[in-house]
Write a structure and sequence with these properties.
Layout lengths: L3 E7 L4 E7 L5 E5 L2 E5 L4 E3 L1 H12 L3 E6 L8 E2 L1 H7 L4 E5 L2 H11 L15 E3 L4 E4 L2 E7 L8 E5 L2 E3 L21 H12 L6 E3 L14 E3 H7 L9 H12 L8 H8 L24
Helix pairs in contact: 4-6
């Protein structure tokens, strides 16, 4: 079946958020929502998430799922804010979030009281789990490599790939974050490439290489034919060599440190200190 997919672009982080719905039942999901964050002022905002909610309400949609493809390192999640706005929604992520939480708890010195069992989320998906958006069947595909918790969601004929692959001229995600592994990413992408060629592919980020217009939708056929990093004929060893060399030249994302602290909490901000102010930590000389 074919869901209706409405994209929303967050220019500051080059992130695509999607409102996915079943036109028959009006049930919907929101994929990878963004919480606005002003790094200079340390101020959060909900303008971007509000646009998604406004569209859902205008279309009389019942949002049942808030789906995270992974704990992002380039934007803060609006998952918790959306749960308040969409009271029927379940906030979900892949079960690999437990490994990500275990990895980052000592980096941010969060203490033994910080849960690393994924309990901050409403639901953890295992590879192969199935659920539904209204009458449209959905499947979870684990795609570790960029991160340990990365998953793709196949909802009808639409595939939401997170950061595993970008548009064909954008290539693939980096693998140098803690827990990243280029070999695993290559094998994950091959699982996606085994899906039907006409599967619609929706990416989480686009950086408009070459100055083209920003884009969010492609197909499995187009990826296999033209992805600059992992098209048909590229071997695992060649991919890993390319990815390793390329990753060594990349700077850390501007929002890595605030994003991960919030996103491993399922979009919760840290608890306020005794003065009522919330603080994010900045580990020195750690990355």
């Amino acid at each position: 079946m074919r869901p209706t997919v409405v994209p929303f672009f967050h220019r500051e982080s080059c992130t695509w958020t999607y409102l996915v719905s079943d036109p028959a039942t009006r049930h919907a999901a929101i994929v990878d929502p963004v919480l606005d964050f002003d790094t200079k002022a340390g101020r959060t905002g909900t303008r971007s998430a509000q646009q998604v909610v406004d569209r859902a309400r205008a279309e009389d949609l019942d949002v049942r799922w808030i789906l995270e493809t992974h704990a992002h390192a380039d934007h803060l999640s609006a998952g918790q804010w959306l749960k308040r706005e969409c009271p029927n929604a379940t906030l979900a992520i892949g079960e690999g979030i437990r490994i990500v939480q275990e990895t980052f708890r000592p980096i941010f010195n969060l203490g033994e009281h910080f849960p690393v069992d994924g309990s901050q989320f409403d639901h953890l998906f295992a590879d192969g789990d199935r659920f539904a958006i209204g009458a449209i069947e959905a499947e979870v595909i684990a795609v570790p490599g960029h991160t340990n918790d990365s998953v793709a969601y196949r909802i009808g004929d639409a595939l939401f790939v997170g950061d595993s692959i970008f548009m064909p001229d954008g290539g693939t995600a980096r693998c140098d974050f803690p827990g990243g592994d280029a070999h695993r990413l290559y094998r994950s992408i091959q699982r996606l490439f085994a899906l039907p060629s006409d599967t619609r592919v929706f990416v989480c980020h686009d950086y408009a290489p070459g100055g083209r217009s920003y884009a969010c939708e492609t197909t499995i056929a187009a990826q296999k034919a033209g992805n600059i990093h992992v098209r048909d004929g590229v071997s695992e060893d060649a991919f890993v060599a390319m990815r390793t060399a390329r990753d060594a030249t990349l700077e850390m994302p501007a929002l890595l440190l605030p994003s991960v602290q919030v996103n491993i909490r399922a979009g919760h901000l840290p608890e306020p200190d005794d003065n009522g102010v919330r603080y994010l930590k900045l580990p020195i000389d750690r990355f």
